[in-house]
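User: For a benchmark we're assembling, each entry needs the component sequences followed by a predicted structure for the full assembly. Here are entry 17's components. Please fill in the structure.
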Amino acid sequence: MTRLFLQSLLFTIIFTVLTGLVYPVVITGIAQIAFREKANGSLLEYKGRVIGSALLAQKFESPKYFQPRPSACDFSAVPSGASNLGPTSSALQSNVLSRAAAFCSANKLPANAIVPGDMVFTSGSGLDPHISPESALIQVPRIAAVRGVEKDKIKVLVEKHVESPQLGFLGEYRVNVLLLNMALDRL
Amino acid sequence: MRQNEIFQVFLYVGLLVGLAPLFGKYMARVFEGKETFLTKIIRPLERWVYRLGRINSDEEMSWDRYFKAVLIFNVVGLFTLWGLQMVQSALPLNPQMSGNVSWALALNTALSFITNTNWQAYSGEAVMSYLTQMAGLAVHNFLSAATGIAILLALIQGLKRASSEKIGNFWVDLVRSILYVLLPFSMVVAVVLVSQGTVQSFSPYVTVRTVEGAEQIIPLGPAASQTAIKHFGTNGGGFFGQNSAHPFENPTPLSHFIEMSGLILLAASLVQMFGVMIGGRRHAWYIFGVMLLLLLGSFMVAWWAEVQPNPVVGKIQPLLEGKETRFGVMNSMLFATATTGTSCGAVNSMHDSFSPLAGLMPLWNIMLGCIAFGGVGAGLYGMLMHVLIAVFIAGLMVGRTPEYLGKKIQAREATCAVIAILAPGILILLGSAIACVVPAGLAGLGNQGPHGLSEIFYAFSSCANNNGSAFAGLSANSNFYNLTLGTAMFVGRFVPIFAVLAVAGSLAAKKTVPASPGTFPTNGLSFALVLLGVILIVGALTFFPALCLGPIVEYGLMQTGSVF
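Assistant: Structure for entry 17:
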């Protein structure tokens, strides 16, 4: 028994060093040399300051910007979170219906219009950086009106920002809201 | 778009069926001590580790000594990991000045990581220091996965050997699993994940002002190295609280495909390795087929259920509550069923928000014992316990002493197999029953009505079967849940391990008998059907009443638009 205990202790130490220190340090070394920007959070600069990460959603409230998906954690990243509301939750029902109504009135849609799911359902991470292309295109007339820019110009910008499934078949069509909004300001 | 989704499913399954035999052959060579392409590099390191650990790699263990080694090693891991969390504020690599973790949460987390469960009642980015994550939690991702493989190897030795007292050396099995399998693969995957945007940095969090001028704190940390082993070792404990839904842990559809493949590949390859090592590759393919059938069946039900409209919210589609845009509905369902068919438990979407029947499928996969393809090692040794019951029942039906791979299956083996299969079931039903009647259990509910009951069932199922995914609306960081679920994880891990090693010891001691006309052939459709029948009947008899009160009644209520 004492021999097994001693061996257990030794192997715990050996593997803590090997898989808990050497391994992550080696990977960090490779990451920092080969993929420096990505390993450090894909940070974006805008007008001379770091404004966020290309991979994390941030809050956009002004009608002149494209709206991201609603966030159950209000875009806080430490920690982020989801609603975890079930399919028969009354809170889910009232949240979704009021978000749909707000979206319709902000975008001057008829009150009975069916809003795309991504604009009324909160994401899994609370920080989903994307919306569907349909959700972006619905917002184009509003943004064109607020900014006094032609609709077509903004529509072209959205289409330029649509990301296709990766390698042609993995995942979904999507638009990164932060990148799109930064491009919008540069128009 | 639907065509593209079907193509992704075929690619996923095709890759699995194609790669598993290759990895299986590689691992068979590794564990039989034969030369592989990595031997030249790793063999010296392996010898050095044996010397440092003061073991003689030629010395073999009886089954009870093997079990003692497993248990003592894991208990040492439990206490060191528990302690590390409770003193982390005084240790280096803590740029966010995270405080010490409370004793109950630290105990729950330590139990969770040593048992390969990786249930998380915390959010890593808010609670754990970088040191705790990499030198504590990530280490046990390796150790618990290697422990699972070791138990499987011991059982294989039990089946292979005749009239032997010994079933191998735990330390050798452990060391080889890590050095030849887990570590090299994780290194490759970690680098690929970083290339996609998974963070890997020791820098402190970055505070930014957003475009509209609000403050946002961007968390960082050594996430890619931990995420790689989290999947490959079917651990599932996220570096970040939102796990593989978090864009810093799973940034792109490609990283997603790799993570989803990684979490199942090793478990599936171990089935192929088993076939090579026992000299019965056809038999292994039948087991593989049953596992694949269970997995794809649950996936198809979940996918069908999740694209139906939810009358509670009208005609709004797609149902993306708790899902990420870049993955969409199909990939969320495939990931959810794969992560619960295996005992991974990583999540790319919030299972709690799935529609009732789609949420039922992950729960059902876990209740069956995570055997499609299961946790690394644990999935196959769990499945082999079902196989023993299947041949035992088939033997009783024809009135002959049942045999499996030339070994007589008698009362002792059948008893142990029943213990291994029923222990988690008893924990689930008893634990859920207690949580349903004490105020501390009900206080944690995130949803009301039948969905609340599902949350409790899911928690105990996930912990007792060492899965680790959650209906995460349940607030599990209370003393009640930390302690009851912690107990479920420990008992649900080590009671089956004890039973499996007892079977291994007893089989190793037996003589091998040649197959006779009365032997139930284990290479054939009738074997596969009996096995599938045993799994489904045992699962349904144990859990169907409970499932009726949870997801099934919720489905009916949802159709009428009821809310709670």
